[in-house]
Amino acid sequence: MPRVNRKRRRSPAPEMHRNNRYKESPPDFSLLASLYPSFSPYLIFPSSSDRPTIDFTDFSATRELTRVLLLHDHGVNWWVPDGQLCPTVPNRSNYIHWIGDLLSSNLIPAIRDSDSNSEKPVHGFDIGTGANCIYPLLGASLLGWSFVGSDVTEVALEWARKNVESNPHILHLIEVRDARKSESLDGDEFASTSVPSDHVLVGVVKEGERFDFCMCNPPFFESIEDAGLNPKTACGGTWEEMVCPGGEQAFVSRIIEDSVSLKHSFRWFTSMVGRKVNLKFLISKIREARATVVKTTEFVQGQTSRWGLAWSFLPPKRNLISPNAPIKTNFSFMLEGLPRKAGAFQVLKSVETFFFSTGASCKSDMTSFSVNVTLSDEQTGKMLNDGTKRNWPDILDSAVDGLSFHITV
What's phi and psi for 278, nearest 5 deg? Predict the structure, then answer.
């Protein structure tokens, strides 16, 4: 049977997010060294360039760069001890701004105050915030968001709290939470109990809490040996930060499993993903869990690519189209599996057969070589959830109450 597929187009090369301050103005190492003398010893002046750089395989150099960027560009005091994961500020900013896009799209309606019916301030949850606590610090300083940042090691919890307390202007926006303990009501008191190790959100999110999003920079690797394979960088990282049995695929799968239990507690669930092959697996797992929306993006910094994955179980908001707004009415697609010399009649019958197989209502007009297709709500939902959407134009993105369209060969 022929398969409907969208024409392949060359995707534009991914770039830094448009709101990332480093997109148009990369860090000026000379300026930073003149303002922060502690950074100056790490500068290297390549003979082939007038612009200084640093040795990115030197942990001390990358840590000092992160420290001065956070202080100079974000007004954030920051430090981590030796061996802890040292984040790159431009890359982490991309993730924050992408979540901002998800929230501002209002595809999933904002959380509203039950008394005033006004939108509540944005509230996020950072899974595995680490000693660096980078996402809460950036989200609070850049956008005024509040956060809960969770972790499981004493060092990470201690230094995350130190980093928050070093910034009194955003102290009230960030809570650091021990994910090894859950809080359950026992009379009027909260009783602490151990959270099962296979959960990352269930038992850590408190009863009645609601968040606009969760985010995660998961342990990407299955072993510490795999984590040390990139000879071009030295970002540090402990075993707990870098390694998980089964790697990122297993860790993000745990987030997906927990998201099913907490589907009404979050507008968006998100995670960073390090390998594209894992992204495809995780999208399939999310669709099996019957999420209503799945979104992806690509983050690029230098030679490194990461992917952002987001999903929700809440009903998406219907898009209200202005009567004056231009509406896209023509879509192109390809039929695979037909001989190249197939005639228009054969193509038309193949289209009709394809949609008949989905249970759609089809009416062909052989004089104009066209077919009218009507899908019910249930049939449209099935195409969205079973992966058919991947092989069909963007018209399915806006299908909420069934779908009718006209195909001309």
Answer: -70, -35
Model confidence pLDDT, tens digit, residues 126-179 = 999 999 999 999 999 999 999 999 999 999 999 999 999 999 999 999 999 999
Given a contact cutoff of 8 angstroms between Cβ atoms, the answer to whether 96 and 143 are in contact is yes
- Tokens (6 digits) for 390: 């991947």
Distance CA 181, CA 200 (A): 11
Distant-in-sequence, close-in-space partners of 226: CB < 8 Å, separation ≥ 6: 243, 247
- Which residue type does 86 have? C
- Which domains are seen in the chain, by residue range? 96-312 (3.40.50.150), 321-408 (no CATH)
d(CA 312, CA 264): 9
Task: Show binding-site residues.
Answer: 92, 128, 151, 217
SS (H, E, C) 299-341: EEECCEEEEEEEEECCCCCCCCCCCCCCCCCCCCCEEECCCCC
> Helices marked H in 122-171 — which ranges?
134-143, 154-165
Binding residues for S-adenosyl-L-methionine: 92, 128, 151, 217
pLDDT in tens, 51-73: 899 999 999 999 999 999 999 99
